[in-house]
């Protein structure tokens, strides 16, 4: 093994992937727009600047790929990177994808299809992140500041997963000494149980002693809230529209992939809340 390039290497998933791989003794290069001067193992990288791609990839034979955030069409930015990866002989690309399809936004599906054309591809189809319940995500910030969850998902359930469990799966797949043809596949990654927003509010309240109200709103109002939080309008609309699918039960999926690949069950939401309880106590209503 030559090494693993971790894009999104300072984010909630990529940073853990990098640590887990280093703990295994695997060389890691973290790609970031703002590398710290003098810190080894990092490289300047910008999806919008293909000139930064060759230096990031050179000497690496595997990639953990976190697409550009807040985009309904990441493929045009990622395509030049994948072309360069193939040219330089990268033998494995593990994509952090989503189990949830953004309505009227086929770009993520196109990107996954493009990754499947790479040697040694793997697509991780992750459910909603438990970390969304923490600041600075709009959901977590609303809970912290106002003790409220605003949702258009009704009582629909989602298999919320801790980002650290996604990272554990990715590190196992990237630590393999060989890439077999059978390794090329999609993995649905979820937590152990599907929960709706009232369920999550009840768990947070029980563990923190602070009431959390669920306020049911429409999709248009949710999109407006996402825009107010700084999301691009097109992405905000697509993300809000996801909640219609959750309401209809289309996203209520549970898999055993985390256990199957890592040997340990995924963290339960109750465990996650217990660990982070103090982070919802920053400001009373």
Can you give a write-up of this model?
InterPro entries: Ergot_Alk_Oxidoreductase (IPR051604), NAD(P)-bd_dom (IPR016040), NAD(P)-bd_dom_sf (IPR036291). It holds the Pfam family NAD_binding_10. About 40% of the residues lie in helices and about 15% in strands. It has helices at about 15-25, 55, 75-85, 105-115, 140-145, 165-175, 195-210, 220-230, 235-245, 255-260, 270-275, and strands at about 5, 30, 40-45, 60-65, 90-100, 120-125, 150, 185-190, 215. α1 crosses α6 (about 165-175). The relative contact order is 0.14.
Strand order of the largest sheet: 3-2-1-4-5-6-8
Please provide the ordered H/E string of secondary-structure elements. Answer: EHEEHEHEHEHEHEHEHHHH
What structural category characterises the helix and strand content? Answer: alpha/beta
Largest sheet: number of strands, sense, barrel closure: 7 strands, parallel
Q: Radius of gyration over alpha carbons?
A: 19 Å
Count of β-strands:
9
**Average pLDDT reading:** 93
Strand content: 5-15%
């Amino acid at each position: 093994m030559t090494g693993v390039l971790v894009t999104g290497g300072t984010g909630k998933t990529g940073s853990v992937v990098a640590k887990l791989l280093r703990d295994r003794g695997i060389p890691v290069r973290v790609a970031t727009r703002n590398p710290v001067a003098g810190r080894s193992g990092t490289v300047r990288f910008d999806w919008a600047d293909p000139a930064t791609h060759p230096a990031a990839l050179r000497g690496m034979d595997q990639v953990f790929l976190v697409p550009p955030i807040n985009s309904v069409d990441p493929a045009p930015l990622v395509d030049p990177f994948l072309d360069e990866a193939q040219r330089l002989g990268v033998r494995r690309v593990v994509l952090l994808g989503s189990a949830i399809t953004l309505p009227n936004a086929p770009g993520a599906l196109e990107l996954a299809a493009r990754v499947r054309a790479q040697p040694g591809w793997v697509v991780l189809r992750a459910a909603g992140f438990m970390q969304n319940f923490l600041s600075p995500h709009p959901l977590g910030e609303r809970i912290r500041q106002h003790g409220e969850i605003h949702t258009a998902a009704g009582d629909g359930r989602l298999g919320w997963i801790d980002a650290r469990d996604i990272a554990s799966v990715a590190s196992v797949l990237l630590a393999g000494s060989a890439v077999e043809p059978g390794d090329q596949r999609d993995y649905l990654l979820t937590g152990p149980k599907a929960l709706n927003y009232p369920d999550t509010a009840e768990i947070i309240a029980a563990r923190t002693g602070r009431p959390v109200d669920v306020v049911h709103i429409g999709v248009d109002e949710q999109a407006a809230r996402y825009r107010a939080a700084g999301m691009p309008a097109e992405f905000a609309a697509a993300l809000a529209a996801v909640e219609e699918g959750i309401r209809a039960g289309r996203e209520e999926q549970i898999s055993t992939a985390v256990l199957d690949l890592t040997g340990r069950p995924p963290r339960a939401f109750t465990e996650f809340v217990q660990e982070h309880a103090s982070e919802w106590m920053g400001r009373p209503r």
